[in-house]
Each structure stands twice: as C-alpha cells, then as structure tokens.
Amino acid sequence: MSPDEMETRIVRYGDLKPCRTAFIDAHTPGSDQKENFTIIGGGVSESPDQHVHIKDTPGFNIGAAGQPPKCRNSLHSHKTAEVFYVLKGRWRFFWGRWGTAGEVVLEEGDIFNIPTGIFRGFENIGTDYGMIMAVLGGDDAGGGVTWAPQVIEDASDHGLVLGENGVLYDTKKGQSLPDGIRPMPLLSDEELKAYPEPGNSAVVRDYVARYWDLMALAANSPCKVIGEAGLLKDRPGFEVEFLTRGSIPDTNYTLNCHEILMVVRGHWKLCWSGGEKGLAPGDTCAVPPGLEHSLVPSMSGEASLYRVLNTQDQAGPTWVG
Fold first, then answer.
1. Domain pair 12-208 / 211-310, same fold
2. Name one GO molecular function term (predicted).
3. How confident is the model over 65-81, as a mean pLDDT?
4. Domain coordinates of the chain in residue numbers?
5. CA-CA distance, 233 to 318, in Å (whole number)?
C-alpha cells in the first residue's frame, strides 16, 4: 500500500466536515448549534446534507459530535451499540424517558458504552467547544434513531418534520412531506413502557471507564475496554482496546480484522513496508486486514489511543439490566 493510498484511509481532525442539520432537533433552541460528523459509514444522520468521509464500513460506524458550551443533544434511543469517548471538553450524559433517570459526567478520554434500549442525551458542560467521538454498531448503525415523543413535537414547533422514511423536511425552506410519506409516528404510552429507566449505579459501574484508570491498566499491555473479555463486558459487534506508550506491540504485527485507530493524546507514527504516516489527536485511521505494520508514539510525553476491531458477533442490543 502506497502512502497516498493510506492517506485515503485517514480522516484528519482538521479536515472533518460538519453537518448542522443532521437531526430533528437542529432548529430547537438549546440544540441548534450542534455539529454532526460522519467519519466511517453512513451513521444515523437524517439529513441529505451529511458528508461521509469514508463510505465503506468495517461492521460498525465511526462518527463524532461537536457542540459549544450548554448545547444539548436531545433524548433518543438506538437498537445497536452507541459508544462515546470524550476527545475535548467536559460532557454530561443523561438518560430515561425525560432524561431524569440517571446521569454521568465524562472528562477527556473517558468512554461510555451506552446501553441500548434506553433514551439518552448529552450536553457540553465545559467552557469551550467540545468534541466526542462515537462508535455505532452495525453497518447500517441499527437502522437509525428513535426519538422521545417530546423531541419530535418540539421540532415541529420549529419547522422540522421527520418523515416515516427517516428523512427530515424543513418547512422553513418550503419543504413538505412527499406524497405517500406520513410523519414519523410518536411512540405510544404502551410502546414507551419497553424503554427501561435504569439508575446511576448499574450504568456507571458496568458501562463507563475512566481515562486515568485505563492509562494505569494499559501501562504494559493493551487494555481490553469493550468486548466479551473487556473491562466493560459486551458483544456489540466490535471490540475496543486502549493503548498507551507502554502497551504497543514491540514488533510489526498483522491482524485478520479491520483495525480503526482513534488517537486521544500525543502523536503517533504508523509504519508499514510501503511508508509511514503520522497520526495526531482526533485523527481516525482505518488499517486494512492483513497489512503488516507497527505503531509507535513519535514524540515524548503522554500518548494514548483507542483501537476498535471488528468481530464476528452480530450487532445487536447490549442492555442487560
């Protein structure tokens, strides 16, 4: 593989292209300044304006959300895994029908494997623009997003209508639902009973890992964060590992699965027989199966990254509470 070919498999943080109309709450006050990024795969955006950096999926999707302080992502649910780690800032994640069942605050580097089947939302509670990186289960990311009823109602008051085809229509731009397409129906009270309301203790204990704990656990070898044998035991269709300067392989290695490298801190160098590439915080690199390569920090100081590997497990629900 040539350096130019490898560059097409790297999405640089500085090259990320945002979509500001990705979801139904794009006009709702308090949520109208958020930016959605689709890095690998189509993600779950409801907007035709969403730019996709790498279309081929390795069995899961990679995305990101960027928000200024006090900006909120509205309550929604997924059928497959939604994993976030904080790249920049300080974030509050909350869940439940009204977002009051529980909450947790994540700092830079922390990771949250949000249980499927619950409504969840998040907001930037830091002082600067923040960024969270996401891994979504399945090639089609589980078929999209299910919104809490009040989110759809609020959006309609501000000009956005979601069709039952999963596409947004902006009445402020003169758009309307096409013939034969009805609005997305609201979940009934009976349907809402299927969405659990777990408290803080079980969710934080079983689905959250802290950056500095991972730094210690990965001091000498990669730390398995999400997976059947992971710190957060789960089988969402992919595995997540955490690597630091002391836990990288000593020699070249080859994997028979897709390997996605997501740099948290420090600068790294990816080397293979055809060349080498530098990776910086916020960069995402899709290493193809079967490529012999090495990975080393290129500078002194703190260095860490998440590595996502596809598995043979079928993407599906992860909530076990």
1. yes
2. metal ion binding
3. 94
4. 12-208, 211-310
5. 10
247 within 8 A of 223, measured Cβ to Cβ? yes
pLDDT at 143: 59
In which band, very low, low, confident or very high, does the pLDDT at 316 lie, cut at 50, 70 and 90? low
pLDDT at 75 (0 to 100) = 96
Sheet containing 52-54: give its strands across.
52-54, 35-40, 60-67, 130-137, 82-88, 111-114, 208-209
CATH superfamily of 211-310: Jelly Rolls (2.60.120.10)
Q: Count other Cβ atoms within 10 Å, centred on residue 188.
A: 9
Written as six digits, the tokens of 40 are 């690998």
- Rounded to an integer, what distance in angstroms lies between the CA atom of residue 113 and that of residue 136? 10
pLDDT in tens, 249-274: 878 999 999 999 999 999 999 999 99
E-strand spans in 148-258? 160-162, 168-170, 208-209, 223-227, 232-233, 238-244
Identify the bridge partners of residue 227 per DSSP, sorted by sequence position.
233
**Residue 166 — pLDDT band, cuts 50, 70, 90?**
confident
